[in-house]
Write a structure and sequence with these properties.
Blueprint (H helix, E strand, L loop, with lengths): L6 E7 L4 E4 L5 E15 L2 E14 H10 L5 E15 L2 E15 L10 H6 L1
Parallel strand pairs: 4-6
Antiparallel strand pairs: 1-3, 1-5, 2-3, 3-4, 5-6
Length: 121
Amino acid sequence: MPALNRVQLIGWLGKDPDVRQTTSGKKVTSFSVAVNRRWKSGSDTRETADWFNIETWGRQADFCEQYLKKGRLVFVEGRLQTDRYEVNGETRYFTKVVASQVQPLDRHDTDAISDEEELTD
């Protein structure tokens, strides 16, 4: 029986990526993404944000560390993973998106090539 675990999100970074390394030296970043949702309730338009925890590894973590900052609009694709841990004898669950692709969708001054640079190349 085939299976599929795939998530695609477009949202805004809630904080700068948190960068750490495992004991074996692999880099991992964690950050949150807010995805806005709007709906009508009678004559009112309401809005809320759903927050998703994102984790990246290896080269993708390097990219996120270098280019992502709080407030950037990003596309994230990956898979859901639920981790289990215990606090005071109580089992708790934490679901995150393990990203295989993260792509900024907005342009910042550091990303843009100025008109002068284009003319000289």
